[in-house]
Write a structure and sequence with these properties.
The protein is an all-alpha fold and about 210 residues long. It has a single domain, classed as Tetracycline Repressor, domain 2 (Orthogonal Bundle). It is about 70% helix and about 0% strand. It has 10 helices and no strands. It comes from Pendulispora rubella. Pfam families: TetR_C_33 (PF13305), TetR_N (PF00440). This is TetR/AcrR family transcriptional regulator. InterPro entries: Homeodomain-like_sf, HTH-type_TetR-like_transc_reg, HTH_TetR, MT1864/Rv1816-like_C, Tet_transcr_reg_TetR-rel_C_sf.
Length: about 210
């Protein structure tokens, strides 16, 4: 008798694919990520993932978009009730903590290899997170400089470079032995982030 193909049954395959993809990237890197491997891990047919992601580019774009949305949510949750410097500091903390909490997402968010269509979509979804950081940077700047577009771009580039660099070094760099800290020591990691963002605030405030 001919075998009758049975449809896959999964409560929320799209989100399951994204969650499993993030785990796989975290442990084995982006190169190891394939739709076939995710199908095997989730126990569904090889064709099932294509109902949600037609190819690897679409899957990676979905993972990155999910990460940018969560990052924007985290940054938007940071209170603005104190000084601009403390707001920038707390945003730096939220940014790096997101990277440490979602390393699979984070590596994909800032990786390369997306199609032009995916890059356009990610630029749109990433704008919300960037705009929050930009607001804090402008609030930190002297009023005269905050009205000059080039100065704002330079200050934002500095702030983004520092928090992104800190996140990547904490994720992938051999910092702990040289700094005599454990990456599991949240207070020590927070102190490092605070020192980095304090230097950024000073540079932005003084126009350096």
């Amino acid at each position: 008798m001919a075998r009758v193909a049975r449809p896959y049954h999964h409560g929320d395959l799209r989100n399951a694919l994204l969650a499993e993809a993030a785990k796989l990237v975290e442990t084995d890197g982006v190169a190891a990520l394939t739709l076939r491997e995710l199908s095997r891990r989730l126990g569904v047919s090889h064709a099932a993932p294509t109902n949600h992601f037609p190819d690897k580019d679409a899957l990676l774009a979905g993972l990155a978009a999910q990460g940018f949305e969560e990052l924007a949510h985290d940054l938007a949750s940071v209170a603005q009730v104190r000084s601009a410097e403390l707001w920038l500091r707390d945003l730096g903390r939220a940014y790096v903590r997101f990277a440490l909490r979602r390393p699979g997402h984070y590596r994909v968010m800032f990786g390369r290899g997306f199609s032009k269509e995916s890059r356009t979509r990610l630029a749109d979804v990433g704008e919300r997170a960037f705009s929050i950081l930009q607001q804090a940077v402008q609030a930190t700047m002297p009023p005269t400089r905050a009205r000059v577009a080039q100065r704002v771009r330079e200050a934002c580039f500095l702030a983004c470079s520092v928090v992104h660099g800190a996140a990547m070094l904490l994720l992938d760099g051999p910092l702990a032995p040289h700094l005599s800290i454990s990456m599991d020591d949240e207070d020590a990691v927070t102190d490092l982030i605070d020192q980095a963002t304090a230097s950024v605030s000073t540079a932005i405030r003084e126009g350096r």
